[in-house]
Design goal:
Blueprint (H helix, E strand, L loop, with lengths): L1 H9 L5 H20 L9 H14 L3 H7 L8 H17 L4 H6 L2 H11 L6 H21 L11 H8 L3 H28 L10 H7 L2 H25 L6 H22 L25 H4 L12 H8 L13 H8 L8 H138 L8 H112 L11 H4 L3 H21 L4 H25 L5 H26 L7 H29 L4 H33 L2 H40 L4 H7 L1 H30 L4 H23 L7 H34 L9 H43 L4 H7 L1
Length: 989
């Protein structure tokens, strides 16, 4: 037992100072977390005040920065924007040591600005500019450490800082100009980001952007005062030419600063938060030193802080749930003081809070682990997908390589064909050579035969010579025998014999030489004959080889031609299949485009958008031309069965032009003074869309291809009918609208009164029916909804009455000696604005009535009622602004109209609040029973709910962007067409 309790004994208890330090850090973290949160509303002053008091308690900003750096500054733009605002306030009003402590975090501020500058819309550019302003402020205080954070110094302190040195004053003025430039750049960007739809001074998003301008106004007023005083000192000591650049820069900043103060004074948001000074119309003349005596220092006055009032003013009118942290945490912070004494109840409550925070921390860790696992799973899926794509890519590359090899083979075969042609040429040359050799051989043979014949002649001559030799031998023998007989004649006979023998020997030698020449020539001819025979056999063998190669090449060529033809057929078929698939995809996309256009025709949000009939009359011609092109492309496809390219090109263009035609037809119908005629035009636009969908469906269905020409003719006929109706509408609008504008105004005002009265009666009837048929929560919800709608209708009726009185006063004051009709004609744009406003009020009343009827009957949503009430409030605001344009500012009727407008705004807020509370009641009544769910079922439902939340958030963001675009287009078109000035409305609102 002793060993078990040993750690408790050895555990050191915290001292009161450590406990107090922990409590202080916890309180600071809570205050900073409440001040810098993710909700798009202005920072609450009480949380900033607690943070500033904490810097004085700590005598520095270490705890502030340690808490701030744990916030998601780089994940949420609202958190980053509020951090800049709180840091600016802390640097101004916090402990003097906060500024040097913040110098070491200058790089983090720069990185934050560089990160958010990539978000080009919304808060991205504003955060970057604010971070640049804070860096400039830190640099200014680093160079001038004697200036406090709020820049408030006396005249003597300013002279002491400058040390009566002109160089110091010169450099100080340049740094103040740089500081002022950053403030003016930030305020210009903030005012430029405001618009009439989502962000203005009366919405929480607009107030969130405008709130940082309060410390900017305080800094700029001090900088302006010091710049004036320093420039007078500089002009007293330096020549005017040297300071020309300073004067030009001051004059530019003076104009921008004066416009900044004027713009801020016109906003209702700053009325109760700060008293902004007004600068004179002309800047001080520094060339005249006497102007310094008439110079008045601008003074910024902050009203005394009232916690209840400030908190109620900063709460957005549209948020009915207090999102601030209350309960045990707030009581714990209030009970913990700086003396370190804590009650046992507070300790128990602190332990409960710690346990709750640990449970929440474990839940968040599990959630982070789940998100990490989900992220890893998605990464694995993406990796598998990448591997599949890489495998597919490798397959495609191998196929492409095979195709390239096949192409190379074809090229080689083509080269073989060229070689074969060369071989044929060589064969022909060989044959020609062979024929020449044959001719030579024939000639040689003939010459050989002649030589043989010559040899035979020589042999005959030799035989004759032998016979003559034999006869000479006989004669010699006879001479020897007769030697005895003729001694005297011996010498003569020997001489004659000698002569005869020499002649015979010479002839014999000649014959022997001729015989040897003939033999050698015979041998050479025989060798030549053998060579010719061998060459002939070789050439015959080569010719046989070439003939066999030619047959092989002919076979391979036929096979390659067959393969090429099959490949061309396959590629042509694949090309047709791709084109057909592309055509089906284009037709499907075209159907989706036309369906969306048909759906937009029934969209109530499009009822506020208008298009002039003159512009619409230029739309039918391209639509009809695209239909003709589609018809001709389809006919060409039917004729040859392969021309799909024309259809692929014409179908998307036709769908785009037709969708634009339908939407512009709907917006043009909104211009019709006759509501039924305008609805008839919209219905005809839907008929055109449905006929077009039939045409596209028949294009995809090959069995109904013969109906396509008739469908094209039908669509063209419908398009022409809509164009004719719009032409009638244009004639009706342009006929005598200016001449009878007074009657039109009275008609619209009467119609507006009638619509409001009918709406009030219908709401009363619905309330009576609900009381008779319903009970319980449904009856309570219906009564609250209808009562709030009834109050809104009463407020609108009162507003219309006051508007009529003010209108009569305006006409009486402005017509002079002319008649009221001439006054309306002379101010027809203003009158058209009144007509448009009255028409919008009537349409809004009908829309509110329809929404209330659907909600009471259980077929609608509370959000429709909220949108309807806000839309009718916006329409009445348009009526008020249109009446206020020409009214006298001191008119009592104008004052009564403003009061009635505030009544409409309050009634609208009541409708919105009632709708949200009733929605909460219904949701609480329909709470999901999870008592019987298993662990697996609860986890599955939790994941499905998270998926649904993400989808709804994405859908909400997309719908907000769409609403913003529609409102911008509405304001622009209304300003151009109806004759009222959106800028004037923005300033009055």
């Amino acid at each position: 037992m002793a060993s078990l309790s040993l750690p408790r004994v050895l555990q050191q208890r915290k001292t009161s100072l450590e406990i107090e330090r922990e409590n202080f850090e916890k309180c600071q973290a809570i205050s900073i977390g409440k001040a810098v949160n993710q909700i798009e509303n202005p920072v609450k002053e009480k949380h900033v005040r607690s943070t500033i008091i904490g810097t004085f308690h700590e005598k520095g900003g270490a705890t502030f920065w340690s808490c701030v750096l744990r916030l998601p500054l780089q994940e949420n733009r609202i958190v980053a924007w509020k951090f800049c605002h709180v840091l600016h306030k802390v640097l101004r009003e916090g402990h003097p040591h906060v500024i040097p402590h913040s110098q070491r975090h200058r790089g983090k501020i720069e990185d934050l600005g560089k990160l958010w500058v990539h978000l080009r819309e919304g808060y991205g550019k504003l955060i970057q500019l604010y971070c640049q302003l804070l860096i400039t402020k830190l640099d200014f205080h680093r160079r001038n450490p004697r200036f406090p954070g709020n820049l408030q110094v006396t005249k003597e302190e300013l002279e002491s800082i400058g040390e009566n040195d002109i160089n110091n004053y010169f450099q100080m003025s340049v740094e103040m100009f740089d500081y002022m430039d950053e403030i003016l750049t930030l305020q210009s960007a903030i005012f430029g980001s405001l618009d009439m739809s989502r962000a203005n001074s009366m919405t929480s998003s607009g107030q969130c952007r405008l709130a940082p301008l309060i410390p900017c106004i305080q800094d700029s007023s001090q900088l302006y005062d010091y710049c004036v005083k320093i420039l007078f000192k500089l002009h007293a000591s330096l020549p005017p030419d040297t300071l020309a650049g300073h004067r030009d820069r001051f004059l530019k900043q003076f104009r921008s600063l004066r416009q900044f103060y004027l713009s801020a004074n016109t906003l209702q948001y700053f009325k109760n938060l700060i008293q902004i000074p007004l600068l004179p119309e002309n800047p001080p003349n520094f060339l005249v030193q006497s102007d310094l005596g008439s110079y008045v220092t601008p003074v910024v006055i902050l009203p005394p802080e009232d916690t209840s009032t400030s908190e109620s003013d900063n709460v957005d009118s549209s948020s009915l749930v207090d999102t601030s942290d209350t309960g045990s945490t707030g009581e714990l912070v209030d009970l913990v003081h700086h003396n370190g004494s804590i009650s046992p109840d507070v300790l128990a409550e602190r332990d409960n809070l710690i346990e709750h925070l640990q449970t929440e921390l474990s839940r968040l860790r599990m959630e982070v682990r789940r998100m990490v696992a989900e992220h890893n799973r998605k990464v694995e899926e993406l990796k598998e997908r990448i591997n599949e794509l890489e495998t597919t890519l490798a397959t495609r590359e191998s196929e492409l390589l095979q195709e390239r090899q096949l192409k190379d083979d074809l090229l080689l075969q083509t080269e073989d064909m060229s070689k074969y042609q060369e071989m044929e040429k060589r064969t022909k040359a060989t044959e020609e050579k062979f024929s020449k050799l044959k001719d030579i051989y024939t000639k040689l043979r003939e010459e050989h035969v002649q030589l043989i014949r010559q040899k035979a002649d020589v042999d005959k001559q030799l035989d004759k010579a032998k016979t003559s030799y034999e006869e000479a031998e006989k004669s010699k023998m006879e001479a020897v025998s007769k030697l005895t007989e003729a001694v005297n004649e011996k010498r003569k006979v020997e001489d004659s014999l000698q002569q005869t023998s020499s002649q015979a020997r010479a002839e014999l030698e000649a014959l022997q030489a001729a015989q040897e020449a003939v033999e050698s020539e015979k041998l050479s001819l025989a060798s030549k004959m053998d060579w010719v025979v061998n060459e002939k056999s070789i050439l015959e063998g080569e010719l046989q080889d070439l003939l066999s190669q030619k047959e092989d090449l002919d076979v391979r060529l036929r096979e390659m031609e067959e393969r090429m033809q099959a490949m061309e057929t396959r590629l042509h078929r694949e090309n047709l299949d791709r084109l057909y698939h592309l055509l089906v995809t284009c037709i499907s996309q075209a159907e989706a485009m036309v369906k969306k256009a048909v759906h937009e025709v029934d969209n109530p949000a499009l009822s506020a958008v208008v298009c002039t009939p003159d512009y619409f009359q230029s739309l039918p011609e391209p639509v009809l031309k695209s239909l003709d092109d589609l018809d001709s492309s389809f006919a060409k496809f039917i004729s040859d069965g392969t021309s799909l390219q024309g259809l692929v090109n014409t179908v998307p263009l036709m769908a785009h032009l037709l969708s634009t035609y339908l939407i512009q037809g709907k917006t043009t119908s909104n211009k019709s003074p006759d509501i039924e005629f305008g609805e008839h035009i919209a219905d005809m636009c839907k008929v055109v869309g449905n006929e077009s969908l039939t045409l596209l469906a028949n294009l995809k269905d090959t069995d109904k291809a013969n109906q396509v020409p008739d469908n094209v003719t039908t669509v063209k006929t419908r398009v022409v009918e809509v164009a004719d109706m719009v032409a009638k509408l244009s004639g009706a609008i342009k006929g005598d609208s200016v001449e009878r504008i007074e009657e039109m105004l009275e008609d619209e005002l009467s119609a507006m009164d009638k619509a409001i009265e009918e709406a009030a009666k219908r709401i009363e009837d619905m309330l009576n029916k609900s009381r008779q048929a319903d009970s319980g929560i449904k009856l309570e919800v219906n009564e609250k909804i209808l009562d709030s709608c009834t109050n809104l209708m009463k407020a609108i009726r009162l507003l219309v009455q006051k508007s009529r009185l003010l209108q009569a006063e305006i006409v009486a004051q402005g017509k002079g000696t002319a008649s009221a009709k001439e006054f309306y004609k002379r101010n027809h744009q203003w009158t058209e604005g009144l007509i448009s406003a009255a028409k919008s009020v009537g349409v809004g009343a009908k829309f509110l009535l329809t929404a209330a009827d659907k909600v009471v009957s259980g077929q609608g949503k509370f959000e429709q009622l909220v949108v309807a009430s806000q839309e009718i409030a916006a329409s009445t605001a348009q009526l008020v602004v249109a009446s206020r344009v020409k009214a006298d500012r001191n008119s009592s009727n104008l004052l009564e109209l403003s009061k009635a407008s505030k009544g409409v705004t309050q009634a609208t807020g009541q409708v919105v609040a009632t709708s949200k509370s009733c929605s909460q009641m219904v949701d609480d009544n329909e709470e999901l029973d999870v008592s019987g769910l298993s662990l697996h079922q609860a986890k599955r439902l939790e994941m499905e709910s998270q998926v649904r939340v993400i989808e709804l958030e994405a859908s909400l963001q997309q719908e907000r962007l769409r609403l913003s675009a529609l409102r911008r287009q509405h304001y622009q078109l209304a300003g151009e067409v109806e004759g009222w000035d959106p800028v004037a409305i923005k300033e009055n609102v």
